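Dig into what follows:
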Amino acid sequence: MQYQAILFDLDDTLYDLRSYWRGRLYEVFDDVVARYPHLERDHLVQQAIREKVYIERLPTFLRSQHIDDEQLIATAHERFRRDWFARLVLNDDAPTTLMALRPSYKLGLITNGPSATQRPKIAQFGLADYLDLLIVSEEVGVAKPDPAIFQLALAELAVPPERALYVGDSLEFDLPGAAAAGMPFIWINPRNEPFHDDLPRPLAEIKRLTELLPLLQ
C-alpha cells in the first residue's frame, strides 16, 4: 500500500509524558514526605498516577492524603506547575523521523485535551515546523476514540482513510478510533504493554518512532 499521509498522537507518542509526569511528582513529594514522614513517596507517586493527578488536581489529591498544611500544599502546587511546559522535550528520535517522512507524506497531529494544555506543548516542541495539520480535540468539539475527529483530519488533508496511517500509544482512544475511521493503525508500545485480543489488530507494533521508516519502504 502506498500511503499519502501519516497522523500522530501527541502524549506518549511524540514525547514520553508518563516518565516526565512521574519525575515531576517525585520532585513535588520530596517536601511532602519531609513534613509528613509517615507517608511513602513511592506510594504517593503511584497513587497520583492511578488517579491521573495533573497540575490542577494536585491540591485536592494532597488533601485526600490527610495533608493539612495549606502552605505546604500551595508550595507543592507551585513547584509542580512551574516550568511544566518549558521542561518538556520530544523523544530524541521524533525530529529526525518527522523530517525523514516530511518530503514523502502529509503529516498531521490529532490530540485529545484542552487547548490550554495541548497548545503549549505543540509550541514547545515546534511541531508546526514538521506537521501540516494540528488538531486539538477541544477546538473541534470531538475527541478520540470518536472516528469523527479522524475523519475531520482526513478531510483537511484530502486523503482517503486507507491511504493514511495513524500512529499512537493508546489502545483505549487511538486504536478503536482509527479503526472505526477505516485507518490502518501502528501501535507504539515502548513499555511492552499487553495487547487486548478483543481489539482490532494494528498493522504493526513498534517501540520507537524510527521503526516507522523501514516499515514504509
